[in-house]
Every structure is written in structure tokens, then in C-alpha cells.
Amino acid sequence: MAIEVRIPTILRSYTGGQKSVEGSGATLEELFADLDGRYEGLRERLIDDSGVRRFVNVYLNDEDVRFLGGLSAPVSDGDTVTVLPAVAGGAR
Amino acid sequence: MRYESLLDTVGGTPLVGLPRLSPSPEVRLWAKLEDRNPTGSVKDRAAAYMVAAAEKDGLLHPGSVILEPTSGNTGISLALVARLRGYQLICVLPENTSAERRLLLEAYGASIVSSPAAGGSNEAVRVAKRLAGENPGWVMLYQYGNEANARAHYETTGPELLADLPEITHFVAGLGTSGTLMGTGRFLREHVPGVQIVAAEPRYGELVYGLRNLSEGFVPELYDESVLTSRFSVSSADALRRTRELLSEEGMFAGISSGCVLHAAIGLAAKAQAAGQRADIAMIIADAGWKYLSTGAYGGTLAEAEARLEGQLWA
Description:
The structure holds two protein chains of two kinds. Chain A is α+β, with helices and mostly antiparallel strands.
């Protein structure tokens, strides 16, 4: 089973510089636990006691997981998870 | 139609169907043309309301300085209001925004303070807050946290949509300050049971996110997640493709954030169609394409246009 997880520049020190890694799990929580096994410390940068950290955005197939059940969001083979820092964005 | 002066023409924008891009007569896409505002963007609503609120609170006097972190549309809207109401405007914007924005701001008489490109809008906000701290007499309306921003949409955009499209099922808008989504979203939720409020968020190139410290991130103070039904991240490739489709299929020359919004709307339409449900999906066309011509978004191949957008704040 392979779920692609895209890593922002700031976190690539945890993945040996890789901008994309693969993991497995039935939910986002399991996926992050799986990644943490191989990329120690990564999970803690993404999650705290209340779920996904405030200034971190996680998207499952481009949809913000906070609207898909957060860490309980089901994930499947072929899905893409993207992690991005929360920014003020562009031209307002 | 007759108005006393230009500021009276804010809002009341047309809702236009997209017959070629809509999947079927039962699943319809609608575009609210916010470029039909006095300075050409949806921000005219927020600017008018924020200045009016500041005047009501006694914060502004003739010659007052207004300061705002803005990469463009809000600055341009504020520049018009400031000019006509007798205030000075200073805008803080990142270096890497399109030329048309700076030229327009200066033409209206605004002053510009540049913030480093690598910091994006986060940095512009930080610089503006610092300047506001150093100059207590200046008024920072602060679009990211000013309730008048969202209220403009609660009181105008939302009611206009409901009047034009009482059968609305989905509302889609770009996510920036979140003012449009929060204000319009709250209004529609109060009046249309089951309506979906969907955010379309631009996803930029790596340079824009850079080595952004995860603990120094930014969430607009106005943002209230509970108003949204879902939120989609849209790549520059998809936004560009859809912006061009909007022009080629429906003849609408829109800004790139509109392509971002259209992409999310088309996704919603496909989902409704697959589920055999009817849908009337209204989306915000925040502005027209004029300010983005120099980004190369409308000419050459998509791949060339995408490469040119890399590192730019395209929406």
C-alpha cells in the first residue's frame, strides 16, 4: 500500500531532504505514525494534543483534512497527502 | 442607472450563468462578477465598509494616514476610498507581485513600502504591524481581522446572491482574508438550509512557503472554520488551466484566483452530477485578468505560463 506524502521544505530535514515520502495506514493518524517510525520527529511537528497543529495545513487529495474528520480521516492506496505551512497567502 | 458618485456603485454585481462549463441543466455553475465594482475587484466592498466603520468609530479625520498590508486589490480599493474621502494611504506589499498592482496604487496616489518577496504576505503583515506600532497616529484597518470586512459580505454579497439565486446549493470563493467566505457564508447558512460553503485556496510554489517556520504561521483572525463545509487547495497549474477555460468557453476574462475558484466549483459540480443531485453553484469572480497579464498567464503554452508563475503570488 502506498500513500504519497508531500513534505514542505521546512520539514525535509526529517526526511533526509526528500520532498515526497510514502507511507501506509487506514487513517491519517496511522499514516503519520507509520512515517514517524521511519522519519523520527516528523509526526510531532505536525500534530499536537488537539490534532493537526494550528499553523500546519494537511490536505488529502487537495482537500483540507479538518473537514474530512481530521486525524480520523480514512486514507487509501493511491491517495496523496500534502503538508503545507499556514500562510497569509497572496494578493489581498 | 444613476448614482451620486463612484463610491455609490459598490456592489450590486451581476450573477452570470456558465452554460458551456455547467455539466447539465440540473447542475449549474454561476459566476458573480465582482470585477464590476468601481476599482474592479470584490475588495471594494470590504474597503468601503472598513473605512465607514473607522469613520463611525472616530478613528479617521481629514488627512489621516491609513496603513495596510496588501498585495493589491485591497490597496487599490482603499486607494479609491482614501482619495475620495480625503485620507492618505500607505500599502505594504511583497516585492514579487505583478507590476500592474504597483502602478495602479501609485496612480491613485498611494505610497508603497516593499517587504521581502521570500516572506510573502506573512512578512507584509509583520512589517505593517511594526510600522503601525511605530506610528501610533496611523490607522491600520487590518483586513485580516477587521469584522467590517466580513460584515460587508454578510450585508451585501450574501443578500444579493440569495435574491438572484434562491435555489443556491453551493457557494465557492477564494480564501485569503476569509472575509468573503465568512460574511457570505454566515448569511447563506442562516437563510439556506443545507447550503455548502466552500473555500478555494491557492497553492503556491515552494519559494513562497520557503523555510517558513511552522510556529510562525498565519491564520486570519476573521477565519472561523465552522462556517466552511470544505476547503480545497488548488495548484497554479489547475488555476491557470481553468482561468483560460473561463475565457475560451464563456468569454470571461478573469483573474487567476477565479480559475482557482472555478476548479473547486467544477469538482463540486462533478460530485453532484455523479450523485444524481441537482446543484446551483455560485462562485465569486474576484477580479478581471488585467492585473495578471504581465505574469504571462494568458499567453503561450500552459507549461510556459506555469513556469512563469513559479515563485509569484498569483492570487
